[in-house]
Design goal:
2 domains, DNA polymerase, domain 1, three-stranded mixed β-sheet, 7 strands
């Protein structure tokens, strides 16, 4: 009888372990799907504008030879309702991209140069009230991950410190303990979550714990 009870307990324990393992796999897959949903998608500017106004998208203009006019893609992040990648006509201004993304009540668009022309691959980060805007109040950055005036290489370092909100891959890689893998994680994090609000937020990036942050805290800044 005791031997039979032992087998029953063993089978019950094995069943519970199998159920927990299966639940863990399902949870991991759910997390992957959620992470994928957070990635910005490319939204054509005319369709985004039509969604806001309820109108039908305007017919596309044709170039002199009947071809589609050139377009650019810009990433809008920060204090906006719909962060993401927007496709706009070449020559569009910061104001157009910000308008399509929609401002949150706490946004401070006046910290940006809304009249600045946009470049392909540019990132526009809308700061919140009380947050310092980009240097010079501009938003005319070009490059894969930027948010201010000039170029990322011009403004990533402030007072000898690296601004982790605008630093390039090479500039992040130059920090102690930050190689190419962690540099890419930092860029991916700010692309998906928006700019870092404090330097302590850097610890939210996978692979940057208290010890590594302690080595970096005197070398980095945010604005």
């Amino acid at each position: 009888m005791w031997e039979w009870d032992g087998r029953v307990r063993w089978l019950a324990a094995a069943l519970v372990a199998a159920l927990l393992f299966g639940a863990g796999l399902q949870y991991g897959r759910w997390q992957e799907r959620q992470a994928a949903k957070e990635l910005p998608r490319v939204v054509p500017g005319d369709k985004a504008a039509a969604a806001l106004t309820g109108d039908k998208p305007a017919a596309e203009d044709q170039g002199a030879n009947g071809s589609k006019p050139p377009t650019i893609q810009v990433h809008v992040a920060g204090a906006v309702q719909r962060p993401g990648v927007y496709e706009l006509k070449a020559g569009a201004r910061v104001n157009e991209a910000v308008s399509l993304a929609g401002l949150l009540p706490e946004a401070n668009p006046n910290a940006l140069n809304l009249a600045a022309p946009l470049n392909d691959g540019q990132q526009v980060i809308v700061p919140r009230q009380g947050e310092a805007g980009p240097a010079g109040g501009s938003s005319n950055f070009s490059g894969p991950v930027t948010s201010g005036g000039g170029t990322a290489g011009d403004t990533a370092k402030t007072g000898g410190k690296v601004n982790i909100n605008t630093a390039t891959m090479a500039e992040l890689d130059s920090l102690p303990g930050i190689g190419p893998t962690l540099a890419q994680r930092i860029i991916d994090y700010r692309n998906q979550k928006g700019p870092f609000r404090t330097i302590e937020d850097l610890q939210n990036v996978s692979g940057i714990g208290p010890g590594r942050f302690n080595d970096l805290k005197d070398l980095i800044t945010v604005y």
